[in-house]
From TrEMBL:
Record region (Disordered): 613-680
Domain of life: Eukaryota
Species in which this protein is naturally found: Aegilops tauschii subsp. strangulata
Protein name: Uncharacterized protein
Comp. bias (Basic residues): 665-680
InterPro entries per the UniProt record, alphabetical: TRANK1 (IPR039904)
Amino acid sequence: MATMCFEKANDAYREKWARAGGLVATADSVMPKNLELGQASLQKAAEIYESIGMHEKAASCYIKLHDYKRAGMMYMQNCSTSRLEDAGDCFAMTECWSEAAEAYFKAKCYTKCLCMCSKRKLFSLGLQFLEQLWEEASVDESNIGLLYSPAAYGLIVDSLDAHLRPSNKKLTHGHLGRMAIFLLHVVPWGAMLTSRLMQYLDSESEWANFFQSLDIFVHHSRYDFFGHIESQHPSGLDGRYSLLLNLKLALESTFKFTLNANWRAEPDYISPMCCVDLIECLGYFASSCFVLHGCMFSTESIFLKMVMRKNCSLYFQSCLMSTPDRELEKMSISVERFIFESARSLLTKKHMIQEWVQKTSSTSHIPVLLRLVVALYLVPLNLKVGDCYEATRFLEMHKVFEDLPLEFSQKILGALQIRSWKLGKFRRLFADALEVIGERMLVAGSPRAQATCRGLNAIVISSWDCMVNHVARTVNSLFRDESIENNFLGKIQRKGLLPHERNRGGNKIRDAEFWEKFEAFQANKQGQKDARAIVVFLRSVLSWLIQRGPPTKIDVDLLLEVRQVCNDFDKQSDDSAEKRACVTAKDLYSTWKDGGKKLKKIISVLRSEKASMEEDRRNAAAADVAVQSHTDGCSGSEPGTGAAEEDAPEARGLSTPEDVEAHKQKSKKKSKKCRRHALP
């Protein structure tokens, strides 16, 4: 009856709602007698609920159909955050363990999430979740107790048991790297975890010495800073010297193993990204020793990343609180020399790096090369180790710049045209080169040392401010105006965007224009086989997401990967228009691993986003009509003349949420004005 009434009233939305409700009632009544009819009714009801945006009701239908994965996806992608735990439960019912863990994490059911990762052997994912929790703890300490819980400790210990080499039952090289990054990221559980870790390492190995020295350093640092006792003892006693030395030796042993080609036979070898991450950490430690009375040169992303890592931040703070130490400074110079030579050696073996990346991860080798080049140049900028201009000639000779972003390479190679090779000139040139790849130079040091950096395109941090206010608080306040504090919350980072992508405020893509392009791309099946059309579409997606913020359903890493794919395509196809015309989607996917699947995922998320926006627009329109009907007595329109309908957002051509919201505000003002006139 309700369906018929709404149909006669031309209320399509409520007609479908009533029809779906009737189908559910039918299914509930006939299911015990006629299972097939009941399931068909539920399936139809679920589809109707989806079509009108009632996703929770659709999910409940799928649960009754035992289609738990579909229900979980519905809760995850289309419902409010209050249903994320239900999404996790649905995924667990259908044994989609990683999806369940992700849903529990987003729902802030952290114990459930960590237990799921441990029980189902999702150790890499679980460690990533723990790292993210430590990052959030830098801003909000409400979850600090969870990080020391049995669930967290159990996950770490179980991950050790699962990554042993068959030959000697010792930790694999890959998990050694992951554990090193993880323990640099968090404050370790102390001797209990270290002793457990030692069971899986040769007691005299370089990595065993590193983990032990890290534990010793953290023990002293926690006593100093959490006990509010200023550290005045030499670096040999507070553990900085030992930590610096042993991290260098551990990386040295890994590089020897890598360059001897032994890694190809390893089932789980350390990834190049992990190696570069540890090189950056080692360089950060070495340059931190000079920050109190001199200055350190770094990049925005490296510095922020190290501040987020509890133990790296403690090292920097320890350098600020200690007296100068000649032995530590000598060790720092030795470490910087090792970084310079290691980076040079690796950069001469581009093909090996490419093979190494393909074996250990799904990313491109270009970010590895770029980060190695940046690490190489930071050494002579910080200390008199190596020469920037000689390093540039070396990289040019080995054709490293051919694989790097074009603008970055051109800026750096411009240094060779300078007549007088001075460090200050190269420093300015390098800062400008960093900016074209969405990065920025960062200088931290004493006020006297900072005076030498005037006019430099860089972020400047005072070591005095860091010492008085603590590093994390100083950095947080410094970057707040530039929205970099989002980096502390795990959101999209400025370093992921190119300058021309960040500065498009005056050329925004309106929603209607973007969705028109989106629909055209979906309809053009032939165009989806053309790499150029795909790249044009992806660029429009990036531009639209940058101006409005990425939806939570799209991983930020995927967006950064898409940007890299687009840049690589432009670079490879710069040769000629003829060559660009011949590039197919298959060619594009040959360099973009799982590109077809990732493109489908992006399209699926955008479809969901569009449906959500349309639902918001309908709700806004309904609210606007309600406001209009309330003010009919103040307007010149007679009841029943359709004035309210003519004033509805759709009738006025308000096709975007921004237009609808503006129209709502206007209507509210009109309502208030009418009420004032109506007062006696």
